[in-house]
User: Fold this.
Amino acid sequence: MAAWALALAALLAAGAAPDRPNVLFLTADTLRADALGCYGASPSPTPRLDRLSGEALLFEDCLCAVPLTGPSFGAMLTSVPPRANGATHNALPVSPEFPTVPEALQRAGYFTGCVQSTWTLKAKMAGLHRGFDRYDEDFHRKRWGIVNAERPADEVTDAALRMLEERPKDRPFFLWAHYIDPHAPYNLHRGFAPPGANVWRLPPREGTRARYWSEAAFMDHHLGRLLDALPPDTMVLFVADHGESLYEHGHLGHGRHVYHDNLRVPLMIRAPGAPPGRSAFPAHGLDIGPTLLALAGLPKLPGMQGLNLLDTAGYGEGRVRFAETYGGTVTRVPGLRQALASGGPTHQTAVEGNWKLILRRGQSPELYDLAGDPGERRNRFRDLPERVNRMTDALGGWTATVGERAAEPANLTADDRAALEALGYLK
Assistant:
């Protein structure tokens, strides 16, 4: 038996499973932090999440490990960076040698359920189904009109409510409900449009942002139904997998860049150990796994690299956070897919306090002072060579220490390839 499993087995004697709290892992796809009213959006498309923020500890500065869905959640649920767990692209599953949060909770006596909404998180695509008693991946809505690749927010909530009703009542539950709606292509939902906006008459860029607003509002309404139906003792961790560029730096989308519009995500925790308020602690996607375990009264698993965000004393000062991207695509040619799986990143970033370094293949470094330049417009790398060198060394040291693992790509069917093409993740 693995060391982590032995450690959990010892813990089971300390408290019966029914005494453990219920935990909801509530996640949104492609949701930038500043798209929420509680993070500054005005008018706010997210009144229900704004209300949750008033009951929760809100982290103002959380960065994902990689701006891509499968790899980001792989990093969250293993607390191991994508380059180390093998899932650097969508359709590259997390290596089974890395235990996941659901596996730990299942061993601790939890009923573990998941309601998915996007093809990239299908079991064989992401490898994150391990440890779930039920992993519901029933999709029927077409993405880009090509293949059934997603499920809208109203149906995600309906399925989650059914799962809660059907669960064994003598065990605590861990439920992961994932909402895809803010992902492109952005749809305009009837009754969910920015106040006063005639979306059809807006210039293209403003129209795009208005439809993104509508998607966030539609999602917020329906995930609110799930929040309102939870047993009163349920702990909630809400986070997004990554953000979205809405024409910043000339980009629309995600997965290929490491600017903050792609990396910064909302994060809220509603639990007795998380006093309501706002935290400036520099949080990271790797912290999600240890924190979910802490909500259930369990320790970090061996090998987890993130922090428990309920106990960060002494960790904030000088913390450096790292993120990278491998381009966001896999190729359909098997040999090239394997080469891509083991290839290095195209973009890397290190964030230390208010300073952010970006390294790109074949390009000059980028250095930004996020306090004075949150839009990352003024490159300071020529002004501060010592800082650039120091942060470059830190990034190189992290890369060497973490290492890199080549993953075996998932075996893709014709539908898988069509779905990934529709989502923009397949060449």
